[in-house]
Amino acid sequence: MPLNILIIGGVALGTKAATRARRIMPDANITLIDQGTYISYGGCGIPYFVGGEVSSVRGLRTTGANVIRDEAFFDDLKGVKAICHTRALSIDRKAKTVLVENVKTGEQSTMSYDKLVIATGARPIIPAIPGTDLKNVTAINGLEPAMAIEEQCAARQIKNAVILGTGFIGLEMGVALAKRGIKVTVIGNLSRFCRPFAQMARKDLEDFGITVVSGEKVVELKGQDGAVCQVVTDKQAIDADQVIISVGVKPNDKLAADAGLLCHPKGGIMVNSHMQTSDPDIYAGGDAVVVRNLISGDFIYLPLGSMANRQGRVIGCNLGGQQSVFEGAVGSWCVKMNKMYASGAGLTVQQAKEAGFDAVEVTMEGVDKAHFYPNHGVASICLVVDKQTRRVLGIQGMSADGSSIKARTDAVAAQMQIGKPTLNDISNLEVCYSPPFAGAMDVINAAANVTDNVISGLHDSISPDEFVKLWEDRANNNYYFVDIRPAKSSKPIEERHPGEYLSLPLEEFNARKGEVPTDRPVALVCNTGTRAYEAQIKLRNMGIKTVNSAGGFQALKKRGDDTKF
Amino acid sequence: MPLNILIIGGVALGTKAATRARRIMPDANITLIDQGTYISYGGCGIPYFVGGEVSSVRGLRTTGANVIRDEAFFDDLKGVKAICHTRALSIDRKAKTVLVENVKTGEQSTMSYDKLVIATGARPIIPAIPGTDLKNVTAINGLEPAMAIEEQCAARQIKNAVILGTGFIGLEMGVALAKRGIKVTVIGNLSRFCRPFAQMARKDLEDFGITVVSGEKVVELKGQDGAVCQVVTDKQAIDADQVIISVGVKPNDKLAADAGLLCHPKGGIMVNSHMQTSDPDIYAGGDAVVVRNLISGDFIYLPLGSMANRQGRVIGCNLGGQQSVFEGAVGSWCVKMNKMYASGAGLTVQQAKEAGFDAVEVTMEGVDKAHFYPNHGVASICLVVDKQTRRVLGIQGMSADGSSIKARTDAVAAQMQIGKPTLNDISNLEVCYSPPFAGAMDVINAAANVTDNVISGLHDSISPDEFVKLWEDRANNNYYFVDIRPAKSSKPIEERHPGEYLSLPLEEFNARKGEVPTDRPVALVCNTGTRAYEAQIKLRNMGIKTVNSAGGFQALKKRGDDTKF
Asked: B475: distance to nearest CA of chain A, Å?
């Protein structure tokens, strides 16, 4: 008797599990049901379809050879019986059947299985405020709403769009709509970013004309003639003829929970490393499950298309009797904003502290190619480290070169995934080197070294926002500011602020070090933080206590703070 | 008494060790000697200076703030007494002194040390053939010969240059000279690349007008009026008014060996994981030492500027009493050629077999961003894997996007450095994903999956050169060729070769599968190898044995073989 495999849900994980299983099991009966019209589409591409980079929604539905991935495609080419518009209502684990309903006709029937895969995905979280049911309030949870928004863009029906939420999809949709000439406001705290990078992300969006509203609570969506017209926060009302809700998703785990399968109290089906639920004949994955956080050991909910694809293959292998494992995740992510690309993996310093680590975060700026090589860029790196063990718990990066910042993040993520890298490991991380690719001391090695110096107390580093605060409060705190950059950059500021700000290029340091007052606290700054660190050591040896602005003016500039001096 | 530190050699490792030691030891006496005129220069940038990307040699000698790194710079700014034109002749380990000679005056003196660092680097290997002492035969072993070549380029004195050796510097110098309008011939076997990629590298160089001569042995350099005029191989004579010798370097370990320090029989000072020689008061690193190969466990000689910088910091830390370690290396590398960038880490299949592994190499082609995202590229990946344990032993990549191929290589290298990743680990490698950065199933995950399928026998893959051989020998071997690409690409070939070559797009496969002969062996090809793999499984289920050309026409095109069909 051929094995009878039933898969519920056909976007990413379901189709991948189905096709992998088919390739290793020529004789199995493989059926995939989905409640929607579209299956196997690239949902992550929606913002690029709305923004215009992907010219047609067809592009999100086709293979690399431009063939639509619809029911006929799976039926004929993949040998998978795909049935759309069919919703699973309940699972009878004893009888090994699933009660399903045709969502068009309401007709119900049962489907039997030997092995079942639950790939029910996630649904958008809708905030509990009035007005979310108004017209033109949308959660982009599939191709239909994306197409509707794109049509409105094309018809120039949207003038003011408000995005609720600053998750990655929210940011991508904000940029996409701004590209279509729409006035965009994004409301949220950019809390996916480490604190120093959140301001850089804000600046990058603002440079594109996007308004970023943080620290406000949305209390109501107001309507006119049934359509949204305003987003009201606790501090202001913002005109809006389109509101996109992007405050996160939650797993569709009810079908599993109702069948008595173990689910996490906060939501999400529990699976073992073979992606099996508490019933070994039922697998689950993708946006419907929680996985193990390989750093904290806790469970983590990571709804990501890439995760779903990888887990889908693991399930497909295991359906075929192989022993494929998915150990867990470190939570790698990346996002393209306006001109900047950001990426990260592992824990933020807040998450690390909550997980019980004695964690610090250290940021730095460094060149991503040899500094003499043309077109090198300056990348921002943030490492999160446990002070006691020097274990690296997280990384974030931000750069105008996406692949370059991805390379550094992926390398650290790769080590966090397979081991417990320390600062020494990252200091010696053997990344590929030649001048068109990296500096001889790569920025990721340098980031580990900076962090090592900070933790060991050799480098008294403060964050750029702390530096700006010191500057703005200088009338009260008596801080004296010393700029280690060449005179061309530092002298004009000194001239604007005599007695408060000294231009002292590193090359002139030894000759002019007597100009630094010994009776005031000193705040240092240079271009990237490196040369001010050298000055800091010299001043420390002179008995002067200093702080150094992490990332120097490169970081200040990315934050839009450079003009404050 | 302050610690007395003496460092012999001041290019990469020496200066890094010195400055790190200074920062953590304000009171130590740190002296650095070097036999040359220039110290702390970016030697890896020489090809980019010769090629014109770096406009002046000054660029290779300055800091990011455009300050020359000379003796005065180290003296004044870094607190390191730097002395050029001073060669170390011998070490008296009992007396803890070094006999040195001023290379300009011949004057000798002794310098004492508490801790000594040997950073003597490497020297070029000069082949044992007649004529290497002729004028205009150069080994680029420092800034002086680089400047001389650049001057000759500027004065248009070079018409025909021959590079002996296809190591990375040889390739980079070949491209650099071709950029200057010089006719360039490179002689060597491109053996740094895995076999399938060597032909891609050759094609890329040839597209730039560079002649690549392989499989020939250089027997003599012929001269006229004392200057080189011809390179003579066992098969031809090539006109040359400039010859660059780039067949590798060997460690300058004589000073250490003469002092009784343990050296490897094949050359290179032996060090422990603290970078200490067999005398704990003497450290060594950079191009002068061998390190542990973290994959094979053997010793390996890896002369690389990045390695030297990282080791330099380890030594600097340890001089200051810290416990910094350098465990070894996996041999990451990268090189920019004409339009293509290549990178790699770990063992080639030959090296793996020599190290006792039951190794295979599998190549594939895959998109490096979401296939619907504009400007995605197709990357070539090669994995070397132990068949028994599925441990990943090596990776190579080739792509027109340098940072993108670096990202994939660095991630695998990072895991090989800290653990023993298997195919399952790389299949689940959690690289950052969103459409502008990667595909939902990243090309590196896909590479692991392809390799898994090949090893498990699900995918009968042959290399592109094997496929081309089958095609060229089709009159004898009776192979039938089936092209799974869309008709637009495959039909024209079928029309040129009726009865031998069938255009059978995957979409039409099920309807037309009867056209595939069952009495002949079948060779499959598609665009990247993926769809022909699907066809292969279907044909296998029909009882037909097939082989599939790895990487499809994408690989054939990168090799220049696509026009043979």
From this structure: 31
- Does the structure's ipTM exceed the value 0.90? yes
Distance CA B220, CA B243 (A): 12
CATH superfamily of B4-121+250-319: FAD/NAD(P)-binding domain (3.50.50.60)
The CATH code belonging to domain B137-247 is 3.50.50.60
Reading the block at residue B428, the tokens are: 């689940």
- Decide if B423 contacts B390 (C-beta within 8 A): yes
Spatial distance between the Cα atoms of B4 and B19, rounded to a whole number of angstroms: 14
Best CA proximity match to B330, nearest among B358, B364, B298, B354: B298
Nearest in space to B525 (alpha carbons), one of B496, B562, B482? B482
Q: Parallel, antiparallel, or unpaired: how do β-strands A122-124 and A282-284 relate?
A: unpaired
If you average pLDDT over every residue of chain A, what do you get? 96
The pLDDT score that the predictor gives to residue B413 is 98
How close is the nearest chain A Cα to the Cα of B221, in Å?
Answer: 30
Digit-coded pLDDT (tens) for A375-433: 899 999 999 999 999 999 999 999 999 999 999 999 999 999 999 999 999 999 999 99
B379-402 pLDDT, tens per residue?
999 999 999 999 999 999 999 999
Contacts of A64 in chain B (CB under 8 A): 367, 371, 527-528, 530
* Residue B535 structure tokens: 């066809």
| Rounded distance between C-alpha atoms, residue B157 and residue B327, angstroms | 47
Instruction: Assign A449 a pLDDT band (cuts: 50, 70, 90).
Output: very high
- CB contact, 8 Å: A133 with chain B? no
C-beta atoms of A372 and B412 within 8 A = no
Cα gap B179→A414, rounded to integer Å: 38
Interface list for B 4-43 with A (CB within 8 A): 12, 16, 23-24, 26, 42
CA A445 → CA A237, A252, A429, B120, B418, distances in Å?
Answer: 47, 41, 6, 24, 15
Q: Sort out which chain A residues have CB atoms less than 8 A from B458's CB and list them.
A: 23-24
Q: Is B553 on the interface with A (CB under 8 A)?
A: no
Give ranges for CATH 3.50.50.60 in chain A: 4-121+250-319, 137-247
**Contact criterion met (CB below 8 Å) for B197 and B550:** no
pLDDT at res. B376? 92
CB-nearest partner of B305 from A23, A433, A449: A433
Vertex A460: Cα angle to A456 and A461 (nearest 5): 110
C-alpha distances (whole Å) from B503 to each of A135, B317, B525, B554 are: 51, 64, 10, 17
* Beta-carbon separation of A306 and B433 below 8 A: yes
Residue B65 has pLDDT above 90, yes or no: no
Q: Which of A402, A417, A432 sits opposite B410 (nearest CB)?
A: A432
Q: How many Å lie between the alpha carbon of B365 and the closest alpha carbon of chain A?
A: 13
Q: Using an 8 Å CB-CB cutoff, list chain B residues near A374.
A: 53-54
Q: Given 3-state DSSP classes, what are the helix, strand and coil percentages for chain A, each rounded to the nearest 5?
A: 35, 25, 40
Residues 200-229 of B with CB under 8 A from A: none
Q: CA dist B557 to A218, A455, B378, B552, B565, Å? A: 55, 51, 11, 9, 11
Report residue A483 as tokens: 């700029």
Closest residue in A to B45 (Cα–Cα): A435
Q: Class of B461-564 per CATH? A: alpha beta
Report the alpha-carbon distance of residue A251 to residue A232 in Å, rounded: 28
Q: What is the CATH number of domain B340-455?
A: 3.30.390.30
The pLDDT tens digits of the residues spanning B289-346 come to: 999 999 999 999 999 999 999 999 999 999 999 999 999 999 999 999 999 999 999 9
> Do the Cβ atoms of B461 and B467 come closer than 8 Å?
no
On the question of pLDDT at A64 being above 90, the answer is no
